[in-house]
Amino acid sequence: MAIDVEAAYRRYGPMVLRRCRQMLRDEQRATDAMQDVFVQLLRRRDRLEDRGMSSLLYRIATNVCLNKIRSSDRRPEDAQSQLLSRIAGAGDHEGRVEARAVLDRLLGREPISTTTIAVLHLHDGLTLQEVADVVGLSVSGVRKRLRKLAASLEELERAEGTA
Amino acid sequence: MSERGDMSGREPPELLVEQLALGELLDQTRAAALRAELEREAAASGRDRLAELRVSDAEILTDYPPEQVAAEIRRRIDRAEADEPRRARAGLWLLAPALAATAVLIWVVTRDHDATTIAHTIARVEEGTSGATPVEEGKREPTRIKGGVEPHLVVDRKLDAGHERLASGDQARPGDLLQVSYVPAGRDAGVILSIDGAGVVTLHHPSEPTAAPALVEGLEIPLAHAYELDEAPGFERFVFVTRDEGAVAVAQVLAAAEQLAANPDSARSVPLALEGEGWMQHSIVLDKPAGEGEP
After folding, report:
1. What is the pTM of this model?
2. How far is A161 from chain B (nearest CA, A)?
3. Residues B165/B167/B172/B176 CA torsion (nearest 10 deg)
C-alpha cells in the first residue's frame, strides 16, 4: 500500500506533533520526533493495516518519544514528565534480548511496547479496553503487560534505594 | 475510571478526541458519547476542544509546510536505507542462531498435523472429581484425538504474511503473536485462559471475570484480539473449559487455574480440578526454547 508522504503529513502530522510536544515539552525535539514517526510509518508501508492510521501513528509517536526520553539526560520538570521518565526507565530495565529485537525488525513486526501500553493507560488515562483497542491486544494481555511493568518499576525503585 | 469507556467523570483522553476529529473513532457508541461529553464541556466552560484542534492543525501546517516536511522525511528515509545494508549484515550475523532455530520451527509446524502423535488431548473430568490428583498418561479417560466433535481450541501463529497453525507440543518464542480460536461444538458457554511457566493465569474469554462466558455458534470462532507471548519461561498452556450440563462459573474456573498454576510440575498437564458434573477441558501447550525468558 503506497503512501503519499505529503498527504499523510497533512492529515496526521498535526496530531503527531501535538503528541510529541505533549511528551517531550520541547519544540525542536518534538518536530524531530514527528519526522522520525513518519519515517517509521513509511518504512512499514507494505505492512500497514487497513483500519485508519491514527492509532498506529499515536503508538509509533509514543514509542519514539519514550526512546528520546530514555536517552536524554534532561531532568523531568513536572510530575507528568517524571512519570514518563520512570516508565521509559522501567522499559529499559525490563530489557529486550538484542537478537530478538533485530529479528522483529527483519521480519517486519512492530513490537508492541509494554512502555507504550503503560503510557497510554497511566499517563494518558485510557481505560484497559481503550488501550487494548489501540494496540490490538486483549484486555487480559494489556493487564498482564502492566503487571510486568509494575514489577519492573518496583525493582528499579529498590535498586535506586540501595544505590 | 470506568473500564467500559464511560466518559462521565473523567477528562476524555487526547487520543480519542483526535480520532473523533479525524473520523477514525470507529465505535459509533463511543463516538456519540464522546461528542456529547465535549459539547457539555463546551457549554459549561466555553472550551471547544474540536475547534481548538482545527485551529492547531492550521497553525502547524502553516509553521511546518507539508512540502518542506515531506522533503525532510524523504531525506531521512534515503539516509536510513543507505545505511541499511551495513546494519543488515551485522544483524544477520547476530541472527544466525535465531534464524537456524526459526528454520527448524517452520519445518516442525508445517508437517501434516493429522499424522502427528501430538494432537489435542481431551480430558473429561469425571463427575465428583475434586482435589488436584495428577492424572497419569493412559489413565486419563477418555483421551481422544479429535477433529471437531467436541469443544476444543486452535492456535495460529501470525506470520509476516498469513499464519501457521500450531499443535500442542510445538515451540513458540516470546514475542510471537498468537490467534486463539475456539470450536464450540454446540456449547453455549465456556472459559478460555492460559497458564504460563511462571505460574501466571491470564483470562482470554470472557474479557473480564465478571462478564458472561457466552460462546458464539460456528465452526472456528477467533477471539477478538491476538495474544503476544511474553518472556515467561517453559511453556504457555491454553485451556478451554466448557460443560455439558450446569452453569460455567468464570470465578470457579479461574480459582482452579490459579490453584493449579501454583505448582509448576503439574501446571503444564494436569486438568483443572473443578467440582460438579459434566466439565470438559481442552489444552494446547506451547513450549518455549530452553534458555529464553525470565522466571
Report:
1. 0.57
2. 23
3. 30
